[in-house]
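Private note to self, pasted from the team thread so I don't lose it. Backbone tokens:
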């Protein structure tokens, strides 16, 4: 008769022991899940930071694959009397491009694009007699010129440089603040 009491008691102890192990596993699993979730959040934040574009400002010397680019100034200029701007204004950007590589590069104004605050690409302005950059630069040579764009009267623009001659697609962006 004593054996009959031992069987249910052994079963209860066995189940209680299993339950305690499952609780420990659950707590461990929760901690692992929290660590994984935290790591995923950090990875996501890092990817967002990597994708966020870096904007340079007027006067910054920007280096891109051995090319040094500088936007020296930005100002609104009067349109030519014989060639009216289609939009409100003409923005003139003074630009400098220096070749610090060992090979010849081509500097061209068509590698520059300007966008308004809504992200619309704006057109170049061809009304002036002065020509923008379009030349080959040997090692150490610098070309300084002006870029002209037909724009609306806004306070902020985004200028993008994306050279066609680079083997890999790269770009540089400036935030152009107008007074």
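Design output:
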């Amino acid at each position: 008769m004593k054996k009959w009491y031992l069987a249910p008691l052994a079963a209860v102890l066995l189940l209680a022991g299993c339950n305690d192990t499952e609780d420990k596993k659950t707590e461990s699993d929760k901690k692992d899940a929290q660590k994984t979730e935290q790591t995923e959040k950090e990875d996501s934040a890092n990817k967002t930071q990597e994708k966020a574009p870096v904007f340079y400002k007027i006067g910054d010397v920007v280096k891109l694959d051995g090319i040094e680019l500088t936007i020296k100034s930005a100002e609104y200029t009067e349109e030519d009397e014989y060639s009216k701007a289609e939009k409100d204004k003409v923005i003139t950007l003074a630009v400098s491009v220096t070749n610090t590589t060992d090979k010849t590069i081509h500097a061209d104004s068509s590698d520059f694009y300007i966008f308004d605050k809504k992200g619309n690409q704006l057109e170049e302005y061809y009304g002036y007699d002065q020509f923008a950059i379009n030349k080959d630069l040997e090692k150490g040579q610098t070309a300084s010129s002006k870029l002209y764009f037909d724009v609306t009267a806004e306070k902020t623009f985004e200028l993008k440089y994306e050279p066609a001659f680079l083997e890999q697609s790269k770009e540089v962006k400036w935030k152009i603040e107008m007074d």
